[in-house]
Amino acid sequence: MKLYPGDGGAAVGTAPAPKARLSPWTGDEAELVRDLHSNAIDGLDQAQVQERLGRHGPNALKEGKKTPAWARFLAQFKSPVVVTLLAATVISAILGEVVDAVAIASIVVINAVIGFLQEAKAEAAVEALKRLSSPKARVLRSGATVAVSAEEVVPGDLLVLEAGDYVPADARVLLASQLSADESLLTGESLPVAKRTGTLAVATALADRTNMLFAGTAISTGSGRALVTATGMATEIGRIAGLLESTESVKTPLQSRLEEVGARLLLLSLAVVALVAVLGRLHGDGWLEVAMTAISLAVAAIPEGLPAVVTLALALAVHRMTKRNAIVRHLPAVETLGSTDVICTDKTGTLTTGKMRVRELAGADGSIVEHVPAEAADSLGNLVEAAVLCSNASLGPGGDAVGDPTEAALLLMARDRGRNPADIQKEHKRLHEWSFESVRKRMSVAVAEDGRVVVHVKGAPESVLPLCRIDEVQNKAISAALAALTGKGRRTLAVATRSLPLPPEQFQPEYHAAPESVERDLDFLGLVAMADPPRPESVSAIRRCKAAGIKVVMITGDHPITAKAIASELGLSEPGRFEGVLTGAEMDALDDQAFGVRIEGTAVYARVAPEHKLRIVEAWKARGLVVAMTGDGVNDAPALKAASIGVSMGKGGTEVARQASSMILADDNFATIVAAVEEGRAIYGNIRRTIQYLLSGNLAEILIMLGAALMGWPVPLAPIHLLWINLVTDGLPSLALASEPVPPDILHTSRKPSARNFFDREFNVEMAFIGVTVAAMALAVYGYSLRVEGELTARTHVFSFLVFAELFRSFASRSETKTFFQLGPLSNAYHLLAVSIPMTFQMLLHHTDWFTGLFKVHNLAWGECLPLVALTLVPAAVLEVRKWLRHRGATAVAT
User: Fold this and answer.
1) What is the pTM of this model?
2) Taking Cα atoms as reference points, which of 21, 34, 437 lies closest to residue 200?
3) What is the DSSP letter of 192?
């Protein structure tokens, strides 16, 4: 093209503000240069740059307002359970129960500190990922090429680009020499996009704007110059970042469940206080005594250890996940994946390797063979050798290929088949190259081979095959092979060769300057089929997700045929139920109701834009499902933020995606998602069983107090008894339950967590059964001792009974389906210790005068202890027998 200097030399003070047209990919390049008051030869001068920086600001995305540390710490106290406990702390202090107030407040503060520190640690890890080398850009300034910080690039700047360069801003291509760009992080397209000059229509889709370069992408091959048309938030990346501001973050299922627990406990506490106060007054108790008993029972109804239990369970999971290369930014996010119904995942670099590889080869007769590593040379050796000689890529010291992804794949193919690409290139001296051109769709090289000149050609089959000498039978076979490979979504190259009738020393490149002089009468060697292959671990990860009842949906910018082929290899499709492919254009033609119907049968989305990803996530969520979104690109960020949990890639992902997510995979491995699902299921099970253990024990205490009041008996448990019971039974044992190891078969044997609540029918029935059983036995012990031995002994017996019964019952609470002996007594050694310590304290309490005076109980003779301990084993034994009978019944039904 002709380069127009433009009017960039106008004085800054008098020049109008540069304005790029609304669609910079349309219209003439020279007109665009004038609109931006730039200069296509010398670029901008420093005065213009400073003026534009002042007007447009730095070339950077707007960062969200950071929450100060003090606000993040106070946010730890928002839970209704924590608010209730704080209220109980104040009331206890007012009533003079200073020890109780200090104990409850300490638990709340410790919980808040742990949560704050974990989130701070995760944010520090994210900041470390941000502190990578600051990107640079090469621009023309006053006729000289200079390197500047990407933030200093302004509209009208002229970018100078080569392979490997980072594109700092949106820009219109002015010069292009074999220029291509990797736009996978923006569009999801796995292959580099060839760039050229020229004009495009206004309605051209983002992925098809071949005369534009976009901020955040990278130059794959060639070189060129481009005129900056937009910077910062005005770029395509900035537009997507703007979507994040209008996308609200959602609460995790765990946060919703715990809020429900807190609300229910608060209502229960108020009801208990009112009921006990009425009964106390009816029996003639004084107001102070009634108030003390009612408040103490209300505090007893609230499991003080719940926040600490939940925090510990999440912190342990975070620790385990860190070892598996997952950085959790917010504690509740760990559990969310266990509740996930649908995982919407990006394809390129997430499910696939993100690198082109040869998958199949077809010989000159059209026969297709899978490309597998082979040490010995085979019948396709000539095809492999010619393909390598047509490659300008190279192998680095570590064995990785450097250069155009397609040409790099050819070198790796040769290495896989036992050939050293460097040796092949050394043995065949290159004499000349006819470079790839978009019009010809092929490239050729002339090499010296056995004292003669040989020309090797590679390119698009429709470009190379017409130049080959093939008969009708061979043509049909090749066409059939080509159709089969294209149907599998492969990118296919044809390779051919020709010997020239002259020795190498007589070869004159200038005589053969026109490629048409040698690209004729070719001998066809075969086809090379390539694709971005699935990660091996992704296939097994998807299989395990299906076993866990989780749908996996693939979202990509690739062509539908390519997307469907990869989905088939990954095992995503479910024939007859979940196998359809839907494109972004087809989505646009559907209203929300019609689209909501289509998603049930759609496993793959192709040629999608960021708005489509967001719509997919929201459509699944509208069905009441928990949706996880994985991705690495800027185009994934809005959907990552809108999903129930966003999982971004830390190694190859973008900062925008990481900031929008709740979890970051440092190894970019989709298989780590399955580990997170296991952790989430384990956390849900641990927290559910722990809450059931805590609430059933508290229910038993309430029923004992109410039962005694209804019977007209003296108050069986003093306030200090209730608080001590909660301390020793809700403390270490509940923490041990929360740290129960992840069972190896958890995805197959565990329930999928409810997205809404813990309190399903099974939970309520089990809690009521346990509470009533323990309360009935405790009241029986109290009533008998009260009649036979008096009030002090009766209180002593029921107090000790409750402590030991709850401690022994914790062993039965380790699993909903397996007994203590099936799990293995030593599978959680910490649990044994967590029960032994409070048991020791309880025994000392009954045999130390100071403690018996403080707790208003008497010394228990060892003869009294044995029958009492035997009785405390009954509730745990009943639960274990119930589990054994259920398992036996289920086995009988199965057989």
Assistant:
1) 0.64
2) 21
3) P
Q: Which residues contact 173 (CB under 8 A, 6 or more apart)?
A: 179, 195, 196, 197, 211, 212, 213, 224, 225, 226
735 vs 877: CA distance, rounded Å: 22
- Interatomic CA distance for residues 344 and 628, integer angstroms: 6
Give the pLDDT confidence score for residue 13 in this predicted structure. Answer: 39
Please give the helix or strand (H or E) that residue 593 lies within, else none: helix 592-598
Q: What is the dihedral of CA 684, 687, 692, 693, to 10 degrees?
A: 140
Could you give the CA distance from residue 759 to residue 691 in angstroms, rounded to a whole number? 10
pLDDT of 297 reads 67
Q: For this structure, is 208 an active site residue? A: no
Give the whole-angstrom CA distance, residue 89 versus residue 81: 12
Q: In sequence order, which residues have a C-beta less than 8 Å from that of residue 318 and are 6 or more positions away?
A: 118, 122, 328, 331, 334
Please tell me which residue in 35, 157, 165, 346 is annotated as part of the active site. 346
What backbone phi and psi angles, to 5 degrees, belong to 529?
-105, 130
The arithmetic mean of pLDDT across residues 628-649, rounded, is: 80
Do 806 and 798 meet the contact criterion of CB atoms below 8 Å apart?
Answer: no
Q: Is the pLDDT of residue 437 over 50?
A: yes
Query: CA 785 to CA 159: how far, in whole Å?
Result: 91
**CA dihedral angle for residue 314, residue 318, residue 319, residue 324, rounded to 10 degrees:** 140
**668 neighbors 220 (Cβ within 8 angstroms):** no
Give the three-state DSSP class for 574.
Answer: strand
Looking at the DSSP bridge assignments, the partners of residue 368 are 362
| Rounded CA separation 334/653 (Å) | 20
Copy the structure tokens of residue 805.
């019964």
Q: Are 658 and 129 in contact (CB under 8 A)?
A: yes
Q: Work out the number of other CB atoms within 10 angstroms of the CB of residue 601.
A: 13
Average pLDDT over residues 404-427: 90
Token duo for residue 141: 């300034």
Residue type at position 794: A
The Cβ of residue 504 has, within 10 Å, a number of other Cβ atoms equal to: 17
Nearest alpha carbon to residue 137 among 108, 117, 167: 167
Partners of residue 345 on adjacent β-strands: 554, 630
Beta carbons within 10 angstroms of residue 385's beta carbon = 24
Each residue of 570-593: pLDDT tens digit?
988 777 667 788 998 899 999 999
Q: Distance of CA 154 to CAs 136, 144, 146, Å?
A: 13, 16, 14
State how beta strands 551-555 and 342-346 pair.
parallel
On whether the CB atoms of residues 673 and 628 are closer than 8 A, the answer is yes
Neighbours of 624 (CB within 10 A): 9
711 and 812 in contact (C-beta within 8 Å)?
no
**End-to-end CA gap in the chain:** 79
pLDDT, tens digit (0-9, with 9 covering 90-100), for 96-151:
667 667 766 776 676 677 657 656 654 554 454 344 334 778 999 998 889 898 88
Confidence of residue 453 (pLDDT cuts 50, 70, 90): very high
Residue of 199, 134, 143 lying closest to 168 (CA atoms): 134
Q: Report the chain's mean pLDDT, rounded to a whole number.
A: 81
pLDDT at 388 over 90: yes
φ/ψ of 649, rounded to 5, equals: -100, 130
User: Looking at residues 169-181, what average pLDDT do you find?
Assistant: 91
Torsion of Cα atoms, 183 then 185 then 187 then 188, to 10°: 110
Element holding 453 (H helix, E strand): strand 452-459
- Based on DSSP, count helices (H) and strands (E) in the chain, helices before strands: 33, 24
> What phi and psi, each to the nearest 5 degrees, are found at residue 394?
-145, 160
Question: Three-state DSSP class for 816?
Answer: coil
